[in-house]
Task: inverse folding
């Protein structure tokens, strides 16, 4: 495994564990200051349509989302578990940037102990390797379906 691949894999695993452990305050820290996080249906992505279910442009928007989730939003209490394929990593057009493609499945468990598939799709990442640790410059979550069966509250 080359260094870029290992760095991307480490970033993705730390991200998934933070979300799964409900450490949402850590979530924005996985991105560059101008990083972008999008959740988009597969059909819109394939057609180049811009409509997203979530589109956070910049860490400040992500931090606002976390504050909102913690203090204002009402959503089902749940526990997520990410299952991911190893990433396919390739150089991007910029020095120190790589692209990664990773398939995922998120299982969601509710308070009654019922676990079911919540979201499936692919992460399309642009990862910045230039700093002391890798960060997402972009994370596009392409859902296999147009939406999710439950309220989409926490990051995927």
Result:
């Amino acid at each position: 495994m080359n260094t870029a691949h290992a760095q991307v894999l480490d970033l993705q695993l730390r991200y998934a564990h933070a979300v799964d452990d409900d450490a949402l305050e850590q979530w924005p820290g996985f991105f560059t200051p101008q990083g972008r996080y999008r959740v988009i249906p597969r059909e819109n992505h394939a057609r180049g349509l811009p409509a997203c279910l979530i589109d956070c442009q910049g860490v400040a928007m992500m931090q606002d989302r976390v504050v909102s989730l913690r203090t204002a939003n009402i959503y089902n209490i749940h526990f997520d578990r990410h299952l991911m394929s190893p990433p396919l990593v390739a150089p991007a057009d910029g020095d120190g940037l790589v692209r990664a493609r990773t398939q995922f499945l998120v299982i969601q468990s509710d308070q009654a102990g019922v676990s079911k598939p919540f979201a499936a799709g692919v992460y399309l990442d642009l990862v910045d390797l230039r700093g002391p640790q890798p960060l997402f410059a972009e994370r596009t979550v392409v859902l296999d379906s147009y939406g999710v069966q439950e309220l989409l509250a926490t990051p995927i």
In short: The beta strands are 31-41, 54-57, 78-84, 88-91, 97-110, 115-128, 135-143. The chain has a mean pLDDT of 92. Residues 3-20 form the longest helix (18 residues).
